[in-house]
Amino acid sequence: MLLSLRAFAEALFSTEEGPPSVERMDWLMKEMDEYLLLAGPGARVIFGLALFVVVWLSPLFIGRLPTLRSLEVPERVEALTRMEESFASAPVLAVKAFLCVVYYEHPDVQREVGHVGPSTFPMRLGP
After folding, report:
1. At 111, which helix (H) or strand (E)?
2. Is residue 24 part of a domain?
């Protein structure tokens, strides 16, 4: 699941310079793994289903097969954009929402977007 999620995230957070750094994507995947573990089995199942639908359906919106992971980043961006603008937008928005909650907690990202205060969403719930 994390490989597919990484493919989605690389497209979602891609800029004109390309996808985020390998280090930032590694951090995001580690945080998402922990986040989903803490969210519980029900949330993991629903999130996994949404991601599954996106990974397999989004390439069809640009006439490609078989999965999102097989596409280059610009093609992923186009596939996700078209799916998000279609009748099938709900799973894209669900995965996007979870990723954004975690991604924008990274200190470098907060600086890049101009956030100057402390983190507002504590990710660590345990010791």
Report:
1. helix 107-112
2. yes
Burial category of 95 from C-beta neighbours within 10 Å (exposed 0-12, middle 13-18, buried 19 and up): buried
- CA separation for the pair 112, 106 (Å, rounded): 10
Cα distance between residue 81 and residue 75, in whole Å: 10
Domain count across the chain: 1
* pLDDT value at residue 69: 95
pTM, two decimals, is: 0.82
pLDDT tens figures, 8-17? 999 999 999 9
pLDDT confidence of residue 85:
97
Q: Among all chains, which residue has been given the structure tokens 């999620």? A: 5
Name the residue range of residue 100's domain: 2-112
